[in-house]
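tool_log.txt
---
The assistant was asked to compare two proteins side by side. It first ran the structure predictor on the initial sequence, then on the second. Raw inputs and outputs are pasted verbatim so the downstream comparison step can read them without reformatting.
(1)
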Amino acid sequence: MKAAFYTLGCKVNQYETQAVAQEFLRHGYVVVEEDQKADVYVVNTCSVTRMADRKSRQYMRRMKKQNPEAVVVLMGCYPQTNPLETDSLPEADIILGTEEKLSVPDLVDRFLAERKKINKLLEGGRQAGPSGCPVMEKEFAELGEVRSMLGSRRALIKVQDGCNRFCAYCIIPHARGTIRSRSPLSIKKEAISLIESGCREIILTGINTALYGAEKGFKNDFEGAGPDWEGVRGIEIAVKAINDIPGDFRIRLSSLEPTVVDSNYLTGLLKYEKLAHHAHLSAQSGSDAVIASMNRHYSAADYLDMVRILKEFDPQYGITTDIIAGFPGETEEDFRKTLELVSKAGFLKVHAFPYSDRPGTPASSMKDHVPAQVKKDRAARLAAAAEEESLRFRQSLTGSVQRVLPEEPALDASAATGEVVWRGRASNYTEVFFAAPAGKDMTADFVDVIIEEPFEEGVSGRLVPDAQAGRQRKETEMSDCIFCKIAKGEIPSKKAYEDDKILSFYDLDPQAPVHVLIIPKKHLDSLDAATEEDAQLLAHMMLKIKDIAKDLELENGYRVVINTGEDGGQTVKHLHVHLLGKRAMMWPPG
């Protein structure tokens, strides 16, 4: 038998569809494309907008027309929030919400045996309220190791479910329930499996990813595993767990909510060298009045401060966002402030939406709803302003060397050049197009591309010749090095000591009451990279440690730590010494 899958909405839905498809494969099904004739059609729905609900209904009707005997499964946020409405849809044979998705193949068997409609949301006496049926799960529902990848080298890992922020326009907390976080050990295990299978980019995703580990009773499996785990919290736990895995790959966060994170939170993430230089921060508006009306607890200034932290770390840091045009009560002045935020933030991409009313949300009952035509006009103006800023950002990449993960050929081979144009993603999420010899599989690993100009919604460039790749990448890494920028004064720091050769500054994530870093101003990747020429520099640095310790009044002793390489726990590729004191130190350190 054949099964087809149609997925709307977020990356969590994409991941869960992959998990359900794997379950069908285990039951002996053949998985086919969504528009092909199949025996079972599974629709994994989104309910962020009414348009998404409409698309789900249209697909079901289209597939039932193509194969009237097929079994149609409707699952996800749309039925979870509208169980009675979806129960009335004649095309839906099986209905379930956001829970028990791995049971779908068994439900299909049950339907084929009984030939009676199944609605899991209304079974067992469950009562549907104004916002749908309550989500019953209180713990993270493990879906097993999901091995399907986006393309050939990128993969999703779901780390979290649920949200407790209740933004005024959003129905999703009712669709997904309370916060549940996946075990850090389980996340790391799946990541190792994917990396061993050839994955080069792992995307951590959740309903509100930044709320990872925020629920009462959450257990960090790595707590107490060593001093480098002290003070690690939130999504940083999952990032560090994967960052510690040996190998050449990168980590990407699907989104971070400004309702949860702040500048300090972001600063703590910047030390992980495998974390992509890209953040999706949903601004939603640039007007403080509208942001407050949305029940989002930050200001436009707070948001721009987060942008500043990222851009100071790397001027080419890619920032993407979501913005709603025409939220109830939004005035022309409010909208002007949103355009102002777009011009200041320097976004790579803005997902601009006209406000979509969702019954059951506080925004639905607000006064002063913006007329439909005004919403449409503002969304168009917002999109135009966003495109200007995106073009400006992409132009700024010209001449830079970007490390790109190729995904797929974008254009067929040219008869004149014998080359194929490939599409891939840079660390900052910019789409990069480049030419490569026809017949050569470029997906095996990262490539270095010199950016030449904006192209379509991304940029185009040329491959760095193999002989130059190492040198070009090294120059790029040095220009991106956070410690080099601190040494040059491009990033502010609280200094403990400085001379012409070295700098000592306080660690932003201290592991002891006194914790400073000591770095050479000359860039050295690690202690292993030092040569005889560096002997005097290293001697000077080591001798100065006792003077710095004395100035810091570490009279009862102190610990000096140099982390070298991945197994040594080195997180920044610039030689640095940790000087810790003012507390008793364990041995062994872990």
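(2)
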Amino acid sequence: MKKNRIPIQKDTVIRDRYKILNKIGQGGIGTTYRAHDETTDKAVALKVLDMEKIENMKELELFEREINVLKNIDNPLIPNYIEHFQINMSKHPLYILVQEFVDGDNLYNLVKNGKNYTEKNILNILKSILNTLSYIHNLHPPIIHRDINPKNIILHKNNKIYLVDFGAVGRGHKDTLTGAKSDTFVGTIGYMPQEQLFGKVHPGLDIYALGVTALFLLSGKEPWEFSIKNMKIDFHKSVKISEDLRYLIDKMINPDDKKRLSTAKKALSLLNEIESLLVEKPVKPIEAIDNTNEQIETGWVKEALNKQNKRKTKTKSEKSKKEYKSKVKENKEKRYKRKKIEKDRKQAEKAPLRVKIIKHSDGVELLIEPYPVLRLFLKIISEYYAFWISILVFTIPFWLIFIDIGPELFAGMDFNEATVIILSLLIVPAFFLLFFIISIFYLTIRDHSKDFALHIRISNDNYCAIYKKNPKKSIYIDNKNKIAFSAITSSYNRPYGRGKKSEFWGGIQINIHKLKEPLKRTGLTHKDLEVINEFKALYFRSD
């Protein structure tokens, strides 16, 4: 039996206040109408849920969740909540949400009607939506939209970008943000990453959907119209955009949520950097035309004016070229820096986790393991490379001298001529190589003996730092002297504590007044520092 349609038509007045003007659209769990609020004399949007048509109680739960979310949101680019209520119309129980009406059209309709978007337009749209996402993702608890697509982004007549339709919203909390599963499948096929299909809820879902939306705006193609390569939308050949914008979208739509831009803040940071790189080449200035020249056909006045105009044009052109070259150089440096940061990140991701939190029956322990011997070996080679090169350069003159005097030194020995030549050529490099090997092994063994495993154990208010190989030499600080164990300080730097700072590498310093020098550990990755900060937050007290 076919159910009756919702008894709402044009000019229907609801609650003696809202006069229906027209139907805007049909969503997954409701129908939206444009109406006139006769109390405030303003346009409003009414989202109507017909209770008789609900097939799953989850639809009602999502509708109520949208109401609760909108009541607590205060953002100029999200339509304001006005009220909600339930009424019966022609025996139809209706649940109605009233919101501010956004006077504009959604991006889907605009593209289908022939609107083209430049890279600058795309960056402005991305920046606006990312700012909105940053706001909702940082609420407590975080709000995940879960249904970002061109139909849910509206371009207002004043050119502001609004995010609408929070009917699929997910409430992020400690569990969902770390990948817990939700029992509701929501979203728009094609604009969802694969983990959303399994019910996971985290900010990366919205970043992915926004990246796919950008592709639709650039190409007019739906996600399923692109070819797929390695589980990823392959748009490089079909969408002609700059290398920098392609890089940004690639990072947003990565199917692996661990490699994808995980937060709106990170995406905004990268977008701002890319925005500064998209510099158009300067147009060659047109020579100025002086109207007074039209009246001067001959004479030195005309010639003087022409020279002056040429000189001005040349000066402007040279200035423009210098500015352009300066900008190009700056952009190259930024690209190089970005590639270096990406390389740094990959190295940090490959590095083994050296920090662990171990729980015991009587307390908890932070374990910082020493460098793997091979990594320590490579570290020493990289740290002392200048020393080896200087020794090699210093050895070359002796080697050249020895090539000349070698035959005389070996003349009294029972060697044939070929052996004497080989010995003269190789004996100095052999000594250098032997010195090089012995030095590296000595430094590796020396540093390995210092880089002991460090245990920081908290048990019944007792703190201790222990040498793994010799527990008898441990520094044990009891409850009376715990003030001596004053701080665990973490910092970011380059691998092994050398060079400029890095967001992926760091180290820690532990101050204990019984030691002349603080205990230091470098070469820790951002993952190690996260474990240390968790330990500090949960267990460590410096009082």
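---
observation on (2): The longest strand covers residues 18-26. The radius of gyration is 35 Å.
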